Amino acid sequence: RKVAYLMRLPTDQHRLKVGFSWITKSAIDSIASLQSTLANVLS
Q: Which branch of life, at top level (predicted)?
């Protein structure tokens, strides 16, 4: 679904910006879940 959305975007620059924001968001999400898992293990 995200790929189809990217294909409809007007410019490559816009595609890059949206794709980068998705990657950043998922990276932050995974780091946050990793931290909470570590906190649970240590406590």
A: Eukaryota
User: What's the distance, CA 17 to chain centroid?
Assistant: 12
What is d(CA 26, CA 20) in angstroms, rounded to the nearest whole number?
10
* Strand (E) or helix (H) holding 33: helix 12-42
Average pLDDT taken over every residue of the chain: 87
Q: Do 15 and 9 contact (CB within 8 A), yes or no?
A: yes
Q: What's the rounded Cα separation, in Å, for the pair 43 and 36?
A: 11
pLDDT at 35 over 90: yes
